[in-house]
Each structure stands twice: as structure tokens, then as C-alpha cells.
TrEMBL record:
<keyword id="KW-0808">Transferase</keyword>
<dbReference type="GO" id="GO:0009252">
    <property type="term" value="P:peptidoglycan biosynthetic process"/>
</dbReference>
<keyword id="KW-0378">Hydrolase</keyword>
<protein>
    <recommendedName>
        <fullName>peptidoglycan glycosyltransferase</fullName>
        <ecNumber>2.4.99.28</ecNumber>
    </recommendedName>
</protein>
<dbReference type="GO" id="GO:0030288">
    <property type="term" value="C:outer membrane-bounded periplasmic space"/>
</dbReference>
<feature type="domain" description="Glycosyl transferase family 51">
    <location>
        <begin position="81"/>
        <end position="246"/>
    </location>
</feature>
<dbReference type="Pfam" id="PF06832">
    <property type="entry name" value="BiPBP_C"/>
</dbReference>
<dbReference type="GO" id="GO:0006508">
    <property type="term" value="P:proteolysis"/>
</dbReference>
<keyword id="KW-0645">Protease</keyword>
<dbReference type="GO" id="GO:0004180">
    <property type="term" value="F:carboxypeptidase activity"/>
</dbReference>
<feature type="domain" description="Penicillin-binding protein transpeptidase">
    <location>
        <begin position="326"/>
        <end position="485"/>
    </location>
</feature>
<dbReference type="InterPro" id="IPR012338">
    <property type="entry name" value="Beta-lactam/transpept-like"/>
</dbReference>
<dbReference type="InterPro" id="IPR050396">
    <property type="entry name" value="Glycosyltr_51/Transpeptidase"/>
</dbReference>
<dbReference type="Pfam" id="PF00912">
    <property type="entry name" value="Transgly"/>
</dbReference>
<dbReference type="GO" id="GO:0008955">
    <property type="term" value="F:peptidoglycan glycosyltransferase activity"/>
</dbReference>
<feature type="region of interest" description="Disordered">
    <location>
        <begin position="1"/>
        <end position="21"/>
    </location>
</feature>
<dbReference type="Pfam" id="PF00905">
    <property type="entry name" value="Transpeptidase"/>
</dbReference>
Amino acid sequence: MRQDRPGKNAGGGTAAMGARTTPTARWRRAALALATLAAPALAAAWLWSSLPPLDLTAAESRSTVVLDRTGTLLRPFATADGRWRLPLDPASVDPRFLALLTAYEDRRFRAHPGVDPLALMRAAGQWLAAGRIVSGASTLSMQVARLVEPRGARSLSAKLRQIARAVDLERRLGKDGVLRLYLALAPYGGPVEGLRAASLAYVGHEPARLTLAEAALLVALPQAPEARRPDRFPEAARRARDRVLDLAAASGVVPAAEAEAAKAEPVPHSRKAFPMLAAHAAEGAVAQEPGRAVHRLTLEARWQARLEPLVAERAASVGPGLSAALLVIDNATGEVRAQVGSAGYLDSTRSGAIDMTGAVRSPGSALKPFIYAMAFEAGLAHPETLIEDRPSRFGASYAPENFDLTFQGTVTARRALQLSLNVPAVELMEAVGPARFIARLRSAGAGIVLPKEAAPGLPVALGGLGITLADLARLYAGIARGGTVPVLRRRLDAPADAAILPRIAEPVAAWYVADTLRGTPPPESALPNRIAYKTGTSYGYRDAWAVGFDRRYTVAAWLGRPDGAGVPGLVGRVAAAPLLFDAFARLGGEPEPVPRPRDALVATTAALPPPLRALRREAGPTDRLRIAYPPDGARIDLGAQEGVPAGLALKALGGTLPLTWLVGGIPVAESDRRQAEWQPDGAGFVRISVLDAGGASDSVMVRIE
């Protein structure tokens, strides 16, 4: 580095004693000065041929960084030896810093070959005249050589080696390469190395734009990084900064008035934390590809900066020990645009290190829209179909109740879904079939977890299964996309969606659900008919959910305790829905509705075809035998294209028990109930028939997919 401190003369005496030296001593110093001027060239010529090649492997090591879609830093990671050394291109540095750096450290940086002969002559002449070292002759290239190949002892041989290495570095890397190494390796105190890490640590932002005072401070610190650390010795840092400003003004690099004004700016007294946006997503990206230096994610840093405080505030307002999570998906591309994994990554009281976007939790009523979608798709119902919400028993003992313990009577399917009524949802689930419902969710890519791998039953309609926030968000994005479920993209370089995507619903059924959910009453102080959304509350008040979407984005929110403990009063509509609506507001722009397909049937209940005006209820045993499910001519997606298809639920109405089911004329099941299940062995058209004890029969033709 620059040597501007007074030193001793060659004979070990002080400057005052050196002033009265004899003519012989003066000639001796002159000879030494001439030797000093000639030594670099002679040494370089010899050392170039004798020194081994300089290993830059360690010098090229950088901190792993995670960037957003625009290149904004989300989170850096320390190097293996605990250093903060961030990659930096000189082109992205404030030009004022570079001007101050060369003015203070190496005025002829762009002109010399690594060692500055004029600086050597000046230093030698000052030594000859004063009898002591007045200034050094170290160039930026020589400083880089010392940083790349540290030498403990300060000796003539070490200096000559440094000169040879500096010339070699310039020949190998060029001026910009040497400058890049300096900007990466310059010490700034403690584990902070390089301009970018120092700028973030001491002035709190990237070095692309620096005030004059900030630039001068960052130029001065590497001269004595430990003695001038602003977080420990702010006064020493201020004096060093002001010397840089004085020199810059004296050399005409900056106007004197600007330099004086910059001196009035305070020096930072503490070290700032490095950015930690999307901490969980960044951690996951690095764990997935540990050898990668730069990770570019699909996230939006500005959205992360808006949403992370919102999630933390909402969790804190609900109660102690709670966490929260939020996910934003671009419906068109499947890109994850924001991911907040907890209410605070460093908040141990809320288990903040756990990424709750990937935790398996009970969704409560949040899956009801997909039951309705399958019922709409199968022709069992329409949004304006009348359905009964009355005390009902399914099987021997299952008698679901609504959340408020009341019943609405006869309502439309639209109203039943908007109010999240339980009996209509279970009634439709019975018609659709729990096994087929689970198969549809899994074929769409959702990792559904059933209790102890039990067979799916009607309680899955009300949340009797496990799913992650990420998978739930994907399914809702599928509704917004007309039924095709996107593959979540988290990296910018990840491949685009496959040509054939899984489907959660047909386009018309998906729009029926989207249009219905857009009319769901919003939480307090929110405007209606802006986004389509659904809430959910799991059994025991363990989880509160809210998932909403418009044409462009899907946002999914969750609140609860990471340990799964219940929280009295934790209700999706009260806790999660406000978070959802606030998050949508912070994305900016006006929500856009999902476009309506051409063949969607928009009609009142009275104008519907007669079979769709009211949901058909199970008939008594003396009524005519008929197959209620699957309907004749239906196309049923059981995941046959991906492998062994899921089981198909069979349901009959009327007739005299027991019933015998046949597929292709071959008996497949006999039951004393009006429900059974058949396991297809592949895709294709099949004829399904049923016979009752009295000899009555009914048949349908369906296509298994």
C-alpha cells in the first residue's frame, strides 16, 4: 500500500542526524538510489525466468451469491474460510470511486507496465534528499501481487518479487483484470474483503452509486484496514477519508468545494448486515447446486422487500410463536416471483429457519374448489345447481357440520362454495369419489399425504389430508390457467414448461370455479370482486390458509405454528385472508379476471337443463337402478398416462342390494352398498354395468385416461 509515514534512513539514524552526513555518506546514498532504480528491471528479467507461474486459484475464489431475476443481490454466502468476498465488475462501480482510487493510489495506473518508474525515481530522490523514506512507489498492480501472494517479511527480495509478479499480472490479465482483482481482494477489516462487500457492510448499498464521502472512505480503508475500521475506529476512518478528499481536491480530481462538503458527512459507526432477502429460497438454491458461484432465481427482489415485512407483521399481530409463509406464482410461466418461507428467518421464537412453503399441513377447506371443479366437469352440477345444506349422515356415522354450526337450507353450488359449506362439499365428494379426487390431485403433481396411508374417505373434502403451500398454490394457478397446472420454475435458466402439462380441470369447469370464487365475500376493509380466493382452517385451529388469484398471479398464504400446535381463534378468513389481500395490493396493478371460455354456460337455475337444476340425491332401495357415477360418455383422468391408473369409484342409485359390478361383462366387485371401487389396468374405453338382486341392470360407456 502507499507508504506516506516517516521512516528511518538506510543507516538506522533519524532524519535530523542524516542531515549532517559526510560527502562519502551522500555518495553512498546516491549509489544506492541508482541501484534502486535499476533493480526492478534487472530483477524482473531474472525473476520472470526463475519464478514458478503464479497460482490465481485462491485469489479467484468468491462468495457464492444468489441474485433475483434482474441481477439484484438477494443473499451472499461467506467463502469456505469465512470471508465476504463478492464478485464485482469494474464497469458496475461508481466512476468517482475509480477516479479517487487511481488519484490516491496510482496516478499512472493506465500508463505503466505494472511498476511505475517515475514513482520509483521520485521515491529514490526523496530518500536521497531527506535521508529517509518519504513516500513509497507501490502501484495497484504491486498491491494486487502482494494480496495474491502474501509475504510476511518486508525485505528487498520480497519487494523485487512483488515487482516481478506485478509485471506478470499485467501481462496475463491486462489493466481491467488487475483492477478486478484489486476490487475483489482489497482488505477492509475483519472478514470483509473487496469493494462490494465493504460498500454493503459500511455504507449499506452497492458501489454502483456512491457519494463523494462514501467513495473517499472506501478508498482510504485498505491502507490500514484494521486501524481504520469505521465500526471500531470511526475517528481514524474520518481522518483517512478526509486525507483522500484533500489529495483529490489538490490534484483537481474533484472541486475543492465538493471535497469540503463531503468532509461534513458523518462516517458510519457500525457494520451493516449483508442482504438476506428470500433466505430460504437462496439456501435451497445453493443446497441444490453447491458448486455454483452465482445463482439467478426467478424471484423479484422488490416484491420480496415488500412482502417479507408484511408477513412478519401479520404473524406478530396474530400471536406469539406463530410463523407465516407466502408464495407468489406467475400464472403464465409458473415462475415463483416471491417466496417468504417464515415470519423471520433469524427469529428462533417463531422457528424462522423452517421454510413453511414446503411443510406438509392440513388444508382445511382450501381444497373444496377442486371438488366442485370435478363435479362441474363430470356434468353432476353447475354453479347455479341447487344443492341442500341440511343435517345429513353419510354412511353409518359421518355427519359433517358447518363451521358456524348452522345450515343454510337450499342454496346454489356457487353460494355453497363461496360460503364454504361443508355438507354440500361432502355430498359432491361422495358423487365424485374420494379415490378419484386424490388421484386427480396427485396426477396434477401435488404430493398428497394421507393419514397413515389410509384409504381416502369423505373427510378429505374438509381437509383430512396433507399438502404443502407450494403444491396448493400450483393447483390454484392451474385453475387460473384454464386447468393446466404449471411446473414451478425457481431458476431463470430452468427449462420452460413441458409441452404436455398435467390438468386439474377442464377449461369450462376451471372457469366456473374461478368465477365463483371471485364473488367470495372479502375480509373486512377489502374491496369485493377483485380476486378469486378461498380460505381454509384445519382441524384444531392448527393452520390458517388463504389462496387467491387473478389472470396474472396466484398468491398463497399460510399462518400457524411450525410445531403443529393448535392456536385458538386461528381462522383462515380472519388471519390469512387479510394477509392475502394485502400481498396482492403490494404487487401493484389492478387485478384482472380469468377470461371466460366460449362454451361456458352462463344461465340462471331455471334456465339450466333439467338434470342440472338440482343435485340428484341418492334414491331409496325400491327406485329404479341406475349408475350415478361415472356418467355415461365421461372422460375420466386417472393418471393412466403416467403409469398404473388410480382406482375408479363406482356409485349406483336405487335397485335392490346386493349389487354386482361388471366391466366388459366380467364381474369386478360385489357389494351390499351402492358404492364400490374398480382398479383399471390401463387407458381406453370400457363399458361398466351393474346388476341388482332383482335382476335390474344399467350400463355406461366411459373413457379412462
